[in-house]
Amino acid sequence: MKKRLIWVELIVFIILLAIGINRFYDAVRYKDTGSGGGTDNFYSINVPIDVIVFGSSHAACTVNNGLLWNEAGIASYTLTAGAQKGDGTAFFVKEAIAKNKPKVALIETYLLGDVSYEEGSFYRTALTSRFSGRYVDYVTGVVKRNGLGREMLEGMLLRLPMVHSRYKELTKADFELDNSYILGYQGSHDCEAFEAPELIGEGGGSESDVLSVDAAGNIEEIIKVCRENGVEPVFFSAPYVATTEQQRTQNAIQLHIEALGGTYIDYLQEYASCGIDFSSDFRDYEHLNDFGAEKITKALLTFLQERYELPDRRGQNGYDKWEDYARYLSNRQLEYRLKSCADITEYMNLVSEVKGDYTVIVSLNGNYRALGDELFEGFLGDFGVDHAGFENGGAWIFSEGNSSFSSNGTAEFTGYAEIGGADVNLFKAEADEFAHILVDGLDYSPSANGISITLFDQRLGYVIDSAYADIYEGLDVQRTE
Known about the structure:
Oligomer: single chain
Number of domains: 3
Structural class: alpha/beta
Order of helices and strands: HHEHHEHEHHHHEHEHHHEHHEEEEEEEE
Radius of gyration: 27 Å
CATH class of the largest domain: Alpha Beta
Helix content: 25-40%
CATH superfamily of the largest domain: SGNH hydrolase
Strand order of the largest sheet: 2-1-3-4-5
């Protein structure tokens, strides 16, 4: 009996040790996706993903997973690394199919023709994925093809770059579970205007380069792996300010794919048919912003619906992450709008429009009536606060449009609420001039006469935006540090 107990204790110790080591390595591992996306959350998903997008940062900046979900309930995912070359994309395709075989693989082609070695790209592809036999094959192949030597091979197989110097850079976030809701899409509202590229046209002849043996082999490997596993490979190019040489490379990629019987969608040459405007749809000369990504994503959605029978996963068990991600993207759009408000009046009007969907924390501070009651009373009235309540001032928590806490104008108060898993604390001592507002320990307290407004998503558990106005400095929207 005693011997059995020792064995049980030993097994438990080994299990706990393995969990601890795994948690430590998860904290210190290499995390730089370089404008790629999706690697952190991919391995935790245990429901079928019907469409997975592969490629470089062009893929992460082009296909809006939230839009595909909202429009058609398509469970899509974008699994990419910044500046990922063709061999890395082939590795990711194999890795994804082994973990969660999709019905359709969308393969973005920007760097499929590039076989040059870049250490950062190699790290981003290899070290953000899990260790497996596929990983060993990929790393060994890269090291051999590029003559990187035994030291690099051993270091990558031991995954040393994931911990080398990382322990000096660790923050609290490294030890916390990921809550970014990212399914791979890296959107942006940034906008930069460009002249549209001079197009050379699709097809072959003198307008195409010849792919290297390795580049052609990577494409062949992707198609082969997909077909062997019943996955439909669909290649596409995203619009960008492409040079003549880059267009020639894309034409060569298209020719090779079509020669193998594959599907290639040329949004680079056919950008106009999607309504792409080079004066408004790009964040930089290579990448689409949210406006451009929406146009290409809708074009891809039409293509997918015409060619494939993809289930509508909305309402199905296990797909909460897609619902959360769609809400996260909606929140981000709201954040952009809030941060573009010129003054506090415009800001309050927008908050009033969306108050039923969020938690709103409001504090009237100091001499908030210095410019008259009309400035802020109407806003509080939208939440049901009457004139007497406004005159008394203080702080409130409104959950989905209804008051869940009010300081009732008292000079000293303490309020607490657990909302969406977050601790919300409002308090004020009699000697304090302004109220204190803390959400999960982060301080959103203003030190100004006027009003402060904090918008919180109770479903996802984070602050979308927090702003205030100092009426002695004007009506400009200001933000807590």
